[in-house]
Write a structure and sequence with these properties.
The chain is mainly α.
Length: 255
């Protein structure tokens, strides 16, 4: 997984998204989930890399499940005098699992791919669109800079919030003054964040100019190899088998 070309991973992510959009059945979803889990195992992703879900997220999930149960729908489950419809709940669980699978696939690609390999892969995959005068290289450079800037800006914003908490705070007596203080603090934080972002952008621009310009970002030599062809063949074969079983299965009509 670590040795695959970044473009191959982007192709697989796009194919998975299209597949789940066209055939969001349980069999297809199970095949994609198994692919993500097996790939994560082969890539030796540690369990500590998995983010922990906050408590409020589980509360929102359970609240949504309760609302789905109230919505009803076939199949009907009878519990004594109660008749509960599980159709909406199954659809809710299906949508939740699709979202979790796509997030897991994106996190897996992020874990096993160097950021510097994304822009050249996007530029190479979008080369056919250059005939239509689409600025593929500029888009690839923008994507690469955004991926590089996110961790840096997150660190800067955390530093700003920590410095803000160290400042002495007043405690207004009326709600009107508390509202004004809250809006004033919000405006100050936004202004500070914009100032930090502009300063970092200026520094990054100087660094890019010193290294030969933005064209060097998307000009890194990278191309698919035999291992990429094997990976794409395995993934496409898995998708074809899952879709065939999904169409032939009696569960296909219920998804």
């Amino acid at each position: 997984m670590h040795e695959l070309w970044a473009g191959t991973k982007l192709i697989v992510v796009t194919a998975v998204a299209v597949l789940l959009a066209v055939y969001p059945g349980w069999i297809t979803l199970a095949a994609v989930t198994a692919l993500v889990l097996v790939t994560a195992r082969l890539a030796r992703v540690p369990r500590g890399a998995l983010p922990s879900a906050p408590a409020w997220l589980w509360i929102v999930f359970l609240l949504g499940a309760a609302i789905a149960v109230i919505a009803g729908g076939a199949p009907i489950v009878e519990l004594g005098p109660l008749r509960l419809g599980g159709g909406a709940l199954l659809s809710y669980l299906q949508l939740t699992l699709i979202s979790a699978t796509l997030l897991g696939l994106g996190a897996l690609v992020s874990w096993t791919t160097n950021i510097a390999e994304i822009a050249p892969a996007v530029a190479k995959l979008g080369r056919p669109f250059k005939a239509l005068r689409v600025p593929v290289d500029d888009w690839a450079v923008s994507l690469a800079l955004a991926l590089r800037a996110f961790p840096m800006l997150i660190l800067e914003f955390r530093t700003l919030l920590a410095a803000r908490k160290l400042r002495p705070r007043l405690h207004p007596a009326t709600w009107r003054r508390r509202y004004r203080q809250w809006t004033g603090d919000l405006v100050d934080q936004m202004a500070a964040a914009m100032t930090v972002a502009l300063r970092r952008a200026d520094e990054m621009g100087d660094a890019i100019t010193a290294r030969g310009g933005s064209g060097q970002i998307s000009a890194m030599p990278a191309r698919p190899r035999l291992i990429d062809a094997i990976a794409l063949t395995v993934v496409l074969a898995l998708f074809a088998a899952a879709v065939s079983v999904e169409i032939a299965s009696p569960l296909a009509g219920s998804t």
